[in-house]
Amino acid sequence: MSQAQTLVDKLWSAHEIAQREDGAALLWVDRHYVHEGSFLAFTQMKERGGSVAEPGLTFGTADHYVPTRRNRPIADPSIAAMVTDFAANAAASHISNFGLGDPRQGIVHVVGPEQGLTLPGLLIVCGDSHTSTHGAFGAYAFGIGASEVAHVLMTQTIWQKRPKRMRVTVSGKTIAGVAAKDIALAIIAQIGADGAQGHAIEYAGSAITALSMEGRLTLCNLSIEAGGRTGMVAPDATTFAYLKGRPYAPRGAAFDRAVEDWSALVSDNDAVFDREVTLDAGAIAPIVTWGTTPDDALPIDGTVPDPARERDPVRANYVRDALDYMGITPGKKLTDITIDRVFIGSCTNSRIEDLRAAAAVLAGRVSKVPGLVSPGSSVVKRQAEEEGLDRIFREAGLEWADSGCSMCVGINGDVVPPGERCASTTNRNFRGRQGPGARTHLMSPAMVAAAAVSGHLADARPLLAGRKQ
Amino acid sequence: MEKFVRLTDKACPLLLSNINTDMILPARYLKLPRTSELGDTLFYDLRRDAQGNKRPDFLLNQSAWRDAKILVAGRNFGGGSSREAAVYALYEAGIRCVIACSFGDIFAQNSVKNGMLTAVLSEPDVQELGAAIAADPELPVTVDLEQQTILRGNRSFSFTIDPVSRNQLLNGWDDIDMTQSYRDRIAAFKSADRERRPWAGPPS
To answer: Which residue in the set A250, A293, A409 is minimally distant from B199, CB to CB?
Structure first.
């Protein structure tokens, strides 16, 4: 009789080509997503005289460096070169590329799912740490560096060591106004920014299965902010309904056959995990970050820590440095922290549901600070415009732009100026992440909208009262 | 790939936790090709003030540690982004080994691919080693991957590293060359897999 297996084990076994004595396994890669930042890997490949082994399994999209105002040319020639070089690399390697100007262009972790390229049971890699996003479909998806990208381009395989397995169970029901982002930040706050290092995470429990695909994508996206290279949710009826009819998803009888196979992608009842973490969904409130790592996260009714009250001197030093960088006085109430701008976008929170959640707060209200809204893909942009969400953002005084990584990583020119404080739907509040000297507070789209109309960090729940969510 | 077996050099104690890849290499330098100039961008925003001048209080700017080949850090070194250029920046600046309490998974993997050792040492050992180096920067540190030890004077520490990474570093294996030797098994897997998982093949 075979041993009970976790979802992670099942996905691993399905991709294992060979195993070395030291424990490394050679795995087959089903989908390889590339973007402008993959240029170092293309250079490595060319230097070795290699070529792309499986162009049909490799897909490109321009996201990291593309301008979010498409009506203007890219001013910086070094940024423009990133976009044009990528298009040339993709064309030379016969890779399908959703480049600048393509109606399917967008952030790689939005486009893959949206186009039906990301499916349950696949092993997916990309030269981007937020590749964990695709685990929302019950895929084994993880970010890789340039050398590994070059290896996958040339062999369609990757050497990996089997990770430990962690199950994060969120049971019960979330309260109204609490989003997937809040669940993710609550998990990160509980286990720490390195809490899942060396582990593959499976998210389970009633609060997880209740999430839409957009919510699961946000949750799995943030696995890496807990240190986990991959995070996943077992596929279910929500997953299959999302995929049906997507451009690249199997069709007709092939889809039915696939659903049959995908339905087996669950952890067996008596499967054993190396670590189990549990949370009560009902205890999770809207969360914001106050410091410079994502585990510096607190419920919105809290106060920032005071280094003088920290017992551990190392921790006290950290808190002092973080508050100094963030320009916040110790012990301050979170809702007393005023902001300079807002950003709604990124692979974490730029999907249609995210935009709807922000718009629900913003409708009929005006932002007290400037802000940028960058939809996750050109498809999301068109859908949002059909729903009239763009009007709500514009009437609130926010800028409605095109899709890309934009102000999350700040390399296309969209940056938060030095010393400014930004309420942001992104994934990293690291020092200088949104630009040198920028101060980032992470939160859900509704919470960013609440901060915008309040001018300070604020609880979105009262602002959502009586509104359709 | 360059092998790593043993290294004796100065070690610089950057005893912070959560030194993420954005701190190691700010994203605005990601479009640079891999050249020796990338070494100048290492820790750019920590190393320099807003005018671009080197901050005298940053340890790698001080004469005692400017040329150190070893870094000693706290928890979660290299967490965050998958940017391998963070490893290139360290490498081009002369770093060949980072000793820390823990590492970001992707960073650790990227390091191995470039012949740079990521040695995991317990928190008390990192504190002890860091304090000792800070007190006497000139006494060199020897990192021995075969023995998995760190020696300084007559004090010895044991570090951990996963066996796969250790093997690759000691042998200097090139992944792509190694994988080529599995070509037949890859082809056999692919054809069997197309039958087994028809939905996983090239989408159209």
So the answer is: A250
A3 by Cβ neighbours in 10 Å (0-12 / 13-18 / 19+) ranks as exposed
Q: Which residues contact B147 (CB under 8 A, 6 or more apart)?
A: none
Q: Decide: A334 and A305 in contact? Cβ < 8 Å.
A: no
Query: What is B6-173's CATH number?
Result: 3.20.19.10
Measured CA to CA, the distance from residue A63 to residue A5 in angstroms comes to 37
> Residue B193: its chain A contacts at CB < 8 A?
28
List the single best residue of A19, A32, A40 to mutate versus B (max B Cβ within 10 A): A40
State the CATH architecture for A288-464.
Answer: 2-Layer Sandwich (3.30)
Instruction: Give the A window 362-401 contacts with B, CB below 8 Å.
Output: none
**DSSP classification of residue A2:** P
Q: Which CATH architecture has domain A7-275?
A: 2-Layer Sandwich (3.30)
Q: Chain A closest CA to B163's CA: distance in Å?
A: 6
Q: What is the pLDDT of residues A46-89, one digit of tens each?
A: 999 999 999 999 999 999 999 999 988 898 999 999 999 999 99
Name the strand (E) or helix (H) holding A197. none
What DSSP character marks residue B155? E
Answer left, alpha or beta for residue A58, where phi above 0 means left and psi between -120 and 50 means alpha.
Answer: beta
Q: What is the model's pTM?
A: 0.97
- For A84, the enclosing helix (H) or strand (E) is helix A77-92
pLDDT, tens digit, for every residue of A275-330? 999 999 999 999 999 999 999 999 999 999 999 999 999 899 999 999 999 999 99
